[in-house]
Amino acid sequence: MREYNFDGLVGPTHNYGGLSPGNLASQSHGGEPSHPREAALQGLEKMRFVSGLGVGQAVLPPQPRPSLRALRALGFTGTDEEIITRAAREAEHLLRLTSSASAMWTANAATVAPSSDTADGRVHLTPANLSQMYHRAIEAETTYAVLRAIFADTRHFTVHAPLPGSSHFADEGAANHTRLATPGHAGVHLLAWGRSAWQDVPGPKRFPARQTLEASQSLARLHQLDAKQVLFPQQHPEGIDAGAFHTDVMAVGNERFLMLHELAFVDHAGLLQMLREKLGPEFRAVVATSAELPPKDAVKSYPFNSQVLTLPDGTMAIVAPIEAQETPAARQFLERVVAEDTPVKAVHYLDVRQSMNNGGGPACLRQRVWLTDAERKAITADVFYTPALHDSLAAWVRRHYREVLRPKDLQDPQLVRETMTALDELTRILKLGNVYDFQH
Ligand SMILES: NCCC[C@H](NC(=O)CCC(=O)O)C(=O)O
């Protein structure tokens, strides 16, 4: 079984809409000009780097934005151009919400269980309904279509429908999911959550908790996971109030290694004890206290929103955002992780600032999918990273993406046309078939 990182290709409307309360970067950069071309190229460079480490790499496509489907559903009628013009005039906020390129953060696209851990021996994928935030909830339908196109072979893959879209089952995907495993022990799944729909659990006071316990429990059932191998830790309410809207802002794990902030989960000590019991003595965890790494620094510089990657030689490397290098407490923490008795032997810092300014680090930009050789071969879409695919995607970005987008540019009816032209071409590059509604 090999891990493939499916990175989200940043979409042509990448912009700073200030859309996510509780996501401090989104709030503080709202209204600034964005650089879609640079953002997409930064993402491609990260794919090149991870692939160069010898790790499996693939790509997921952006979504059509502004979403005409969403605007039509909200009562805007007429030609495509008329819809944009009218939304710009009457409901600028709705235009902003339906223009977000947020599908780039593919950690939120779905939750995935590898075939080694599921009762029927298939890979299970559930697109996240993202129902907590409207600009993200509109991703689910297209994500579902894209995943069905890529993971089409039903002998190997089951793509479930997104969980029912009421706030009771609010699901944010793999950003709240961690799979851990040690040799000789079955994989353990952490399915975290921030609030309960029906139980009375103390939650955050300042910022919204997104995922529900009931959503996480449903994912464990749908994916046919062994109940003994699943834990449902609660995101620490103080962590959420400090800006950790998803688990992956304060914790990241890979195989026998987990690093976390003490405000990632309620009772992290009890959680680590259970993990040691399930995973045995090879399991390693490194905890940052608030004294060592103030929550403010963790949220600003995202050391936990790193990719922890197993390299071909069996050691692990961390791919962290450059902001973590620039923040002394975060850098020192990551250096401690390498210095201690852990599988991690190197830290690499990458520039994904365009994404970071909306609260998405290296880990947010990728969905992890574990595939056997047979499963890998069953995928016929051209989504696996190669230098040739890189060149054609980079050329495609340079052909179609604007250099700068200012908030008022979202009101330009031309933008929707440009995006559709670009995405239509992309589905041919990736051999995806017609996955977008404007193609039907
Ligand atoms: N995993 C990282 C997700 C970041 C994402 N940001 C946003 O949607 C910000 C969009 C904006 O404000 O333009 C979110 O909060 O869900």
Describe the structure.
With 440 residues, the chain is an alpha/beta fold. It has one domain: L-arginine/glycine Amidinotransferase, Chain A (5-stranded Propeller). 35% of the residues lie in helices and 16% in strands. It has helices at 24-29, 36-52, 68-73, 80-90, 92-97, 134-137, 140-150, 213-222, 237-241, 268-279, 295-301, 322-326, 328-339, 353-356, 373-377, 387-400, 413-429; strands at 2-8, 56-60, 110-113, 123-127, 157-159, 177-180, 188-191, 230-231, 251-254, 257-261, 284-288, 307-310, 316-321, 344-350, 366-371. Strands 2-1-15 form a 3-stranded mixed sheet. A 3-stranded mixed sheet has the order 3-4-5. Strands 6-7-8 form a 3-stranded mixed sheet. Helix 2 packs antiparallel against helix 16 (387-400). The protein is globular. The model has no long low-confidence stretch (mean pLDDT 98). The site of N~2~-(3-carboxypropanoyl)-L-ornithine has 20 residues, from loops. Its EC number is 3.5.3.23. GO terms for molecular function: N-succinylarginine dihydrolase activity. InterPro entries: AstB_sf, SuccinylArg_d-Hdrlase_AstB. This is N-succinylarginine dihydrolase.
Count of the separate structural domains = 1
SSE-based structural type = alpha/beta
Which stretches are low in confidence, meaning pLDDT under 50 for 5 or more residues running?
Answer: none
Mean pLDDT: 98
Say what oligomer this is.
single chain
Q: Report the span from N to C terminus.
A: 36 Å
CATH superfamily: Succinylarginine dihydrolase
Provide the CATH architecture.
Answer: 5-stranded Propeller
Strand residues, percent? 15-25%
- Find the count of extended strands (DSSP E, 2+ residues): 15
Using the alpha-carbon principal axes, give the shape. Answer: globular
Tell me roughly what share of residues is in helical segments. Answer: 25-40%
CATH topology: L-arginine/glycine Amidinotransferase, Chain A
Tally the helices: what do you get? Answer: 17
State the CATH class.
Alpha Beta
Bound molecules: N~2~-(3-carboxypropanoyl)-L-ornithine
Q: Enumerate the strands of the largest sheet in spatial order, edge to edge or round the barrel.
A: 2-1-15
| Biggest β-sheet description | 3 strands, mixed
InterPro entries: AstB_sf, SuccinylArg_d-Hdrlase_AstB
Keywords: Arginine metabolism, Hydrolase
Pfam families: AstB
GO biological process, one term: L-arginine catabolic process to succinate
